[in-house]
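Q: I have 178 residues here and want to know how they pack in 3D. Can you give me a structure?
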Amino acid sequence: MIALSPTPVLETERLRLRAPQGDDWPHWHAFHETDRALMIGGGPDQAPGQSWRAFGHVIGHWAMRGFGMFVFTRKDDPQPLGMTGPWFPDGRPEREIGWSVWSPGAEGNGYAFEAATAARRHAFDSLGWDTAVSYIRTGNARSIALAERLGATLDDTAAKPDGIADCLIYRHPKEAAA
């Protein structure tokens, strides 16, 4: 296994958050080709190789920005459950806290909330961010609920990313990170 180095590892009560690695590819790919991934640009009708390129984007973000999405696992099980973290690819108007839950069995257990809370704290405290947004596709009820549970509020004045007209923008205030 080849891993990015050096990258931080975050821990919560139940979870470990680490940089993505090659062994995560089958889990990402399985998720990215389902209807569950439609809200992040995946899905069963994607072009061949799109899932591979998207995962390369996730890993490459760490190399190009020095930070990126963390893959989260339970501390007692290394199987990836999803990913969350600071995200700012070229062309985005603002820094983002993003998330996706890859495993249907991981939904409804509070893992995404726990992981996103730790990742947001890292963005504000370690990376020095003053604010962050979450770009959420209209109709993604689970992500909207998570953003609101995280204390983010809808910001109708924020700029939308190019190519994503159907999104809501939730703002995470710095004081929510503590």
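Q: Anything worth noting?
A: The first helix runs from residue 25 to 32. Residues 60 and 100 are 18 Å apart (CA to CA).
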